[in-house]
Every structure is written in structure tokens, then in C-alpha cells.
Amino acid sequence: MFSLIKFQVHIVVLLVLLILLIESRVIFPNVPEIIDRESLLPDDFMIEDMVELENQDPEVLPNLYQGDIALNNEIFNQLRVGLRWDTFPKKRWENRTIPYAISPLYEPEDMITIMTAIRTLTRMTCLKFPKWNGKDKDFLLIWPIKYPKGCWSFVGKVGGPQILSLQPPDQTGPNCLGGEGRAIHEILHAVGIFHEQSRNDRDRFVKVVWDNIIPAYKGNFEKQSLENTTYSFEYDYKSIMHYGQSYFAKEKGKLTLVPKMKGEKLGQRKSLSQTDCLKVNELYGCLDNIKTAKKYYTLCRILGI
Ligand SMILES: *[C@@H]1O[C@H](CO)[C@@H](O)[C@H](O)[C@H]1NC(C)=O
Ligand SMILES: *[C@@H]1O[C@H](CO)[C@@H](O)[C@H](O)[C@H]1NC(C)=O
Ligand SMILES: [Zn+2]
Predict the structure, then answer these.
(1) Where does the secretion signal sit in this chain (predicted)?
(2) Active-site annotation holds for 59
(3) Can you give the pTM of this predicted structure?
């Protein structure tokens, strides 16, 4: 009896692998023939001055704005937890649709992780993620960029093929693909969402331990003015968009962010929190009508962390 179950498990695993092989073959021909980073990244792509970063989280390593956010020459003075579409109308994905292609350089198990993240987002939000058909002008191109290394993404739609980089596992660890969480985090940046602790009211909820932050990276902990920013939901410690407690720490294990409420933890990278889920649905107008609002409030409550 037991060995029969084991046998069935093996069959299921084989089937999944087979489906993946077929799926990846579907993905391959769609991927444009661009492999070197020069042709993938915009001319005005900014990498901040390098300071030696060791023992840091893979979201911290890319050395971009706040670690993992890629900017072109635009400066986001009008940040909110989600982008303001009235200020940046072109950064909103049209028809709630984000076509994507995955690099053939990923191992099958890493492709599964990325596709699991996309499935989670499809299930919990009103966004659609079709595979790129080779024709859509704007799409996400998920690619293991070598430099800057790590996990990073632009915020909102950039236009054209848009890189989202997820560093595959290597001898240093799982990097960005140990689970679906980091893929979800970076995709949420591409959807139009910023880090939770940059909210204007964050000082009521977290203490920034400035002395423990690597001096060159203190700017990553700035918050946004109320004049330019807004948010609709309660501060969310459980957000997949919140920094971890030791990001940009001078020494491993030193705290840079401490929650002010007892028992709260920071920096989960498992899945969307209930509020993350509502945030995405709100940003794309899916809480505006009573019927879809009811659906997504229920979905977020049941499936959110
Ligand atoms: C708000 O944004 C404007 C322009 O984007 C900027 O000049 C100004 O300094 C910002 N206000 C604050 C208080 O940060
Ligand atoms: C969005 O939908 C409209 C109407 O169906 C269509 O004309 C338009 O091309 C779509 N946009 C994209 C980017 O697919
Ligand atoms: Zn981030």
C-alpha cells in the first residue's frame, strides 16, 4: 500500500517535469535574442557607487535605489506605497495585463518557482499574466542579470521589454529563488508598489537604528512626505514589501529596523499579506465596484498571510 502511494508520487513528479519541459519549450522561442546586459538595460540605468557589501540579503546586493529598485533618470518624488497613476499614467499596465517571458538560462526548478509566483498573483489579484506572444510591445522579461547581481526590478511599467532580475541559486545559497516570495516581491515592484517602510507614518510603527546602517546606505531608509504620498491601508508589518530587520546593517545580525509593536516580525518573503493583496487590487481598480470588491476582499482574507 505504502509503496503504491510512493509510486504514484513519482508518477506525479514525472508528469510535472514533463509539463514543465513542454512549457519551457513554449517559452523559449518567444524570448528575444538578447543575452548581454548592455542590450537589455536602458542607457540611463543608474547603479549607485559601490561600497563593499558582504553577508547581505540578495535584495540589498544590487546597489540600486533602496537596494533592489532600478530607476532610469526619473526621480520618484511622488512615491506612495503604490505609484500614483495621476502622476505616472504611463507606468500603469494596460488592461490589468502583464505579459511575461522567462529566460531559458534558468534551471527547470527555478522556472517552476517563478511560475508558482505568477500563479499566486493570478489567483489573488485581478491582474492577468499571459505568456508573451512575441508581439506585445510591453512585457516583463525575467532574466538572471549578472551585473548588478541579486534580485531587482523597476517600479511600474517602463515600456518595451522590461527586465526583472532574479539571481538563481549558487554555492552561496538560494539567492532569489529559494521560494516564490522574492519573485513575488520583485514582480510587485514591477506592478507599481514600493517598500512598505518608506511610508510617511512609519516612525509610529518601526524604529530606524541609524547607527547600525552602513553610512552610504542611510538614504535607503528615507521616508516620503505626506505632501507627495498617500496610502489606503493600515501599516503592514507582514508586507512582503517590508525590509527585513537587518537590511544594510554594518555587521551581520545588527538590527537596522525594529518594530514598535511587540511580537511583530519584519521582512517575510513567503507570500502576499492580506494587505499586499488588497493593495494590488486597489491599485488596479478592482475594489471600486461592489461585486469585484467583495470577491477580492474575500480572496485576500483567505489566501493572504
Ligand atoms: C514633493 O514633490 C515635489 C516635486 O515632485 C518636490 O519638489 C518637493 O520637495 C516634495 N515635497 C516634500 C516635502 O518632499
Ligand atoms: C487593451 O484593451 C483594448 C480594448 O480591448 C485594446 O484595444 C488594447 O490594445 C489593449 N492594450 C494592450 C496593451 O493590450
Ligand atoms: Zn524591493
Answers:
(1) 1-24
(2) no
(3) 0.79
